[in-house]
Design brief:
The protein is α/β, with parallel strands linked by helices. Helices cover about 35% and strands about 15% of the residues. The protein has an 8-stranded parallel barrel with strand order 1-2-3-5-6-7-9-14, surrounded by 7 helices. A 3-stranded antiparallel sheet has the order 8-12-11, with no helix packed on it. The longest helix has 19 residues. The N and C termini lie close together (about 10 Å).
Amino acid sequence: MKKIGFLSFGHWTPSPQSQARSATDVLLQSIDLAVAAEELGADGAYFRAHHFARQLASPFPLLAAVGAKTSRIEIGTGVIDMRYENPFYMVEDAGSADLIAGGRLQLGISRGSPEQVIDGWRHFGYQLAEGQTDADMGRQHAEVFLELLRGEGFARPNPRPMFPNPPGLLRLEPFSEGLRDRIWWGSGSDATAIWAAKMGMNLQSSTLKDDETGEPFHVQQARQIRAYRAAWQEAGHARTPRVSVSRSIFALVNDMDRAYFGGRPDADHVGMLDETTRAIFGRSYAAEPDVLIEQLRGDEAIAEADTLLLTVPNQLGVAYNVHVIEAILTHVAPALGWR
């Protein structure tokens, strides 16, 4: 295990039981948590993006703010729903945020998860082409985004521009060198993991994937990672890819931990993600550190990955989530080979 970071869904609710009762709370607390995680020595601060929900949505203002407040920690998403994205505008946003962060962005993109509303991407101005699915459209937007990140000129300059142009065709600006190699695809199946490898993207695999074999979640996810790496090698890419998995992991080191997460044995869950897709949801882990270490050593997908993202209960507030991260980094992570 080379890197450990956190992944926040950025939930907020006006409930008095929540420490994040507004969008303002979530945004400012997300910045504070990233700063604190960097101080603890964590490797990454990642955020989800969901539209039409009381959660983090447009990620780039947040990523830029975190980039300006930190100096070392990786800053990423898990994931941006490409069905909603204009790849051209996204290149400008991503380039700006990455330059502010000094080249620390690790952008997770994907087709996206089940939506809060019906065909929400239609409200953003997108329509499906004849015979196209929304998944096809998401991958098409991703392909355009990746091509633009190469930084090659494609637009004919105006012969009488407002400002002087460099010679040749123009690219989108600002351009951030190296960002193309820091794009990840959030994959829910073996097939999309293989596609991501062929496209030269890193792999993000979460706590949810298609149930393709009936085996335990971590076994299926480990097989997915191995299929991805084999496809990467076959594609002949020059660099070494990165792979992350996310987990809900809580080290029970005090009474508050035990009150929140103790005494709740968990297991994988199987259900229907939509009308046709049978999905498997990976278990959560909550135990005393020594027990937790042995449980995590048996997780085949964690062993296969180079990056572990800890999903954090952001509504419990910054202070408690700092404690959650610190407990893992102090009592669990070194035994798994971190640092």
